Every structure is written in C-alpha cells, then in structure tokens.
Amino acid sequence: MKSMFYLIVMNLAVMATMYVAIFVLSLFGIDVMAMFGHGNSGLFIMAAMFGFGGAFVSLFMSKWMIKRTMHLTMLDDDSRGDYRWVYKRVEALAKKANIGMPEVAIYEGAPNAFATGWNKNNSLVAVSTGLMNEMSKDEIEGIIAHEISHIVNGDMVTMTLMQGVLNTFVIFFARIIGGIIDKAVFKNEEGRGIGYFLTVMVLEMFFSLLASILLMWFSRHREYRADEGAVILDGKNGIYNALSRLGSVDQKELALSDDMKSMGFVGFLGLFSSHPPIEKRLKNIEKFKG
Question: Is 228 a catalytic residue?
Fold first, then answer.
C-alpha cells in the first residue's frame, strides 16, 4: 500500500509541476497548447503527454523517493540474524520466480511489507519491524512471496499505465467541457475565459475522484493475483496464516459507528480501498488451485 501511495502522490506532484510550468511559460507569451496543434486532436495529444508523463516520472522515481523518505535499513548478504534470513528468503523466492534480485530493506512500522520498482529486475522489497516481531517465519515468507508476485506480475507498470490513461481522460474531458461551458454560459467566443479555467479546476477534481475509484478497483484485483502468486511460490499456509493474523482486527470497521455502517459508509469507503477485505482474500486462496 505504501508503494501505491507514493506512486499516486508523486504522479499528482509531477502533474502539478507541469501545470505550473505551463502557467509560467504563458506569462512569457508562450502558448504550450499551440505546440500540440489546434482542435480536439491537439488537446488529446497534450492530455496524453501530461497524463502519461506524470505517471511514468512517478514510476521511475518511486524507488528513489521511498528510499529517501522512509529511513530504510538496507540489507545484504552480510546482514546478521533474522535480517539476513529475510535477505536470503527474498533471494530464494526471486530466483524461483526468475526475476533479478531485488534490493531488500527493513523499516520501522506496523506489520506490513511492500514492493516497488520500475521493472522486474530493478525492484525493492521492504519488510517492517512490526511484521518481523509479530509473525512467524512461515508467515513472513508468505508475505514476501506476495510482494515478489507483485514484481513478477509487473503491477507497478500496469498501475502506471492505468494511471496514465485515467490522467489523460481527466485532463481531456475537463477541458472539452470547460470550453463548452465558457462559450455557452460566459459567451466567450474562444472558450478560454474565466469560466473555462474555473470549470476545468472543478471537473479535474471531480473526474480525479472517479478515476481513483477505478484505480483502486484495479488495485484490489491485483491483490488477489499477488495472493495467488504467493501460493504458487510458497504454498498456501504462509500467506493464508499471515492474512488471518492481519485480519484478526478490522481497523476500518472498528473506526465506524453502527449508524454509519447502516448508512452505507463501509461500502462507500471500500470503493477507495487499495486492498480487498481480508475475508475475501482468504476465500480466494482457499478456492485457488494453483
């Protein structure tokens, strides 16, 4: 989940930087839009450049940014005790999965782990101290196998591609509708007046919210696939027992009152969850035949 959070935040930061650059260039009389041609085709090319640009820059920077913001302790073959065991298990599972050896790290935090990186042979697997302290080695190995499966499946790249597509349509349709409203309501012949800019701002926030629902749906789908990959790499027991332990306390439901649950808040918040409910993941593992 941490790797996805960084990917989304960095994507938004890169896109925001691009918007600032367009604004600054416009102050010097440089029309960036005109560089891509006029009409909807030019607008779509611009939207795709910005949409995929933000997504891929965030992908290529994800491992670098995480290493510099999360205070990771990097492990190697000379690490001692259980830390060396973690390194060796990542090494063995990566070899079994036929991918390059990921960088391996430990970080302070609640029971969790994540993987990131822009390709299968240039990745990072990190395990929290909470996971090390509260789970058995078999359970930790199941979690590591899950993260290795994310790398094998190319989940960071597919998430980036989907983010790029969604970015593109958010930018494109917000501007198309903004131009229509500016012409129809504010009577601006060019459709690039104050109504256009206000509408674009509002619609980009609204469309981005809808895009996030789609992105989180895909994220939940990839978690099922990573669980299945963990079963193939390490057997059912490790990942199943690890998820059972993590699911012993459902933090989301504990944080909501009965009234809020009855009003559908649990289901609504589930649309923005990057992971499926653990109960559903356990049932999927039980049914999975490998």
Answer: no
